[in-house]
Automatic annotation (TrEMBL):
The keyword Oxidoreductase applies. It holds the Pfam family Aldedh. GO terms for molecular function: oxidoreductase activity, acting on the aldehyde or oxo group of donors, NAD or NADP as acceptor. It comes from the Bacteria. Signal peptide: none annotated. This is Aldehyde dehydrogenase. It comes from Knoellia sinensis KCTC 19936. Keywords: Oxidoreductase.
Length: 457
């Protein structure tokens, strides 16, 4: 059995060595998930709901422990990590109401009664990236379990600890063995096996666009269902009629949260030309106040990057790039051990620049002027991605027009919020296929069955 050393990204110390699951154990887990499927989906809806509520309560009881584990494993700030553990609790509580509300339809037809059912798919796999190990896991497993599926979860190689603990907490809450199994392992081994195993009926994947494309190609062999939540390069559009102080004050954390390792990070700031300088002055002042450092400190706003490799990737866009990158200003970051990288603001000269087009997944933002509403929309949409974005304006009509015109799944006006567990989340274009969260996520984990009952016999 191969092992993986989990490293604390703020100290570079080894936290723990974990055994990685191989194909054989994955197949065994699939077989167990198939075996317990009928029992889980056959539970009375109220009982399944009750078990999910208990799971939610157990997560809540262990909230601080889970949060501290994420600080240690992923370098998330303690404030973020508490929110993330709380999000798992809330998503479980939200979907615990679903088993009793998994409504079908009664459709008027001649000669009988026609009804639809939302049937579980069977065994559902969830593949999670390293950037938000807890929430992204919960967005998959909570609705999947609520809909009556059994679930196999593969955390990212770098960040398995909270997922493994959640697997234990599920058992503690009374979720039967085999219904929810966490399999720490490699993407090329466990993840691939999810895609090729005929008894796994769905792959719910969050990660890079390239890996997502590969999964979709291979899933086609079995017409396997996929949900793909992929990369992003979201625009933050600041109009001249906005509250410029508020827009500039909010801009730093819109791309520095989680050290920029956030698929929704607003990494392309578009500022109307006539307020560009006024915005930059305020933005630079706001950047000076951002506290980068020990993620365990309550006052810290940004911690380290997750790994040495990720820091090299980020450097490759700024310091070691083939293109000339004009750095406008930078924040500070600790020196010494830990995968630190300072908040960095760059001024691309063209929308074709790599820093402007590619997802960097680090604390780097580009700022560019635009002329008018049409130019802002064109520039915002000049990307392969379409996950999220923000619009700062006091003009309600403009807010609505631009929100409708930007090709992205999650937009916010005068705010940078992207994710609420009760509203749908997902991407346009290369940012993915399907939606998670909100009332409709259950559709992604069920098949509609139509039954006609004749009244003539
Ligand atoms: P990644 O694609 O390298 O890995 C994601 C997961 O897929 C990991 O668990 C990995 O082990 C697994 N994997 C790798 N190769 C696989 C294969 N061949 N078959 C099956 N599984 C495989 O991504 P990452 O670097 O861990 O995460 C960062 C990416 O995730 C970024 O691009 C980011 O934008 C994206 N992301 C998207 C969202 C969203 O909701 N749209 C949310 C968070 C992160």
């Amino acid at each position: 059995m191969s092992t993986h050393d989990v490293i604390n990204p703020a100290t570079e110390e080894t936290v723990r060595s974990i055994d990685l699951v191989g194909v054989e154990e994955t197949d065994e887990a699939v077989a167990r998930a198939v075996e317990v499927g009928p029992q889980w989906r056959g539970l009375a809806p109220a009982d399944r709901g009750r078990l999910l509520r208990r799971f939610s309560a157990v997560v809540d009881d262990h909230l601080e422990e889970l949060a501290l584990l994420e600080v240690e494993n992923a370098g998330h700030t303690i404030g973020n990590a508490r929110w993330e553990a709380g999000n798992v609790r809330d998503v479980l509580a939200y979907y615990s109401a679903a088993p009793e509300r998994l409504f079908g339809k009664q459709i008027p037809v001649a000669g009988g009664l026609d009804v639809t059912f939302k049937e579980p798919l069977g065994v559902v796999s969830v593949i999670v990236p390293w950037n938000f190990p807890m929430p992204i896991a919960g967005w998959g497993f909570a609705p999947a379990l609520a809909a009556g599926n059994t679930v196999l979860l593969k955390p990212a190689e770098l960040t398995p600890l909270t997922a493994m603990r959640l697997g234990e907490l599920a058992l503690e809450a009374g979720i039967p063995e085999g219904v929810f199994t966490v399999l720490p392992g490699k993407g090329s081994v466990v993840g691939e096996r999810f895609v090729t195993h005929p008894d796994v009926r769905k792959v719910c994947f969050t990660g890079s666009t390239a890996v997502g494309q590969g999964i979709m190609r291979k899933a086609a062999d079995q017409l396997k269902r996929v949900t793909l939540e992929l990369g992003g390069k979201s625009a933050n559009i600041v109009f001249d009629d906005s509250d410029l102080d508020a827009a500039a004050a909010a801009a730093p954390m819109s791309f520095l949260d989680n050290a920029g390792q956030d698929c929704c990070a607003r990494t392309r700031i578009l500022v109307q030309r006539n307020v560009f300088d006024a915005f930059m002055e305020r933005f630079e002042a706001a950047m000076r106040d951002v506290r980068v450092g020990d993620p365990g400190d309550e006052a810290t706003q940004m911690g380290p990057l997750v790994s040495a490799g990720q820091r090299e990737t980020v450097r490759g866009f700024v310091e070691n790039s083939d293109e000339t990158v004009d750095v406008a200003f930078r924040g500070s970051a600790p020196e010494g051990d830990g995968y630190w990288y300072p908040p960095t603001v760059v001024l691309p000269t063209s929308t074709k620049d790599r820093v402007w087009q590619d997802e960097i997944f680090g604390p780097v933002v580009g700022v560019m002027p635009f002329d008018d509403e049409a130019d802002a929309i064109a520039k915002a949409n000049d990307t392969a991605y379409g996950l999220s974005g923000s619009i700062w304006t006091r003009d309600v009509g403009r807010a609505i027009r631009v929100s409708r015109a930007v090709e992205a799944g999650n937009l916010s006006v005068n705010s940078h919020s992207s994710v609420r567990y009760s509203t749908p989340f997902g991407g346009f274009k290369a940012s993915g296929i399907g939606r998670e969260l909100g009332p409709d996520a259950l559709d992604a984990f069920t098949e509609v069955k139509n039954v006609f009952i004749s009244t003539d016999n």
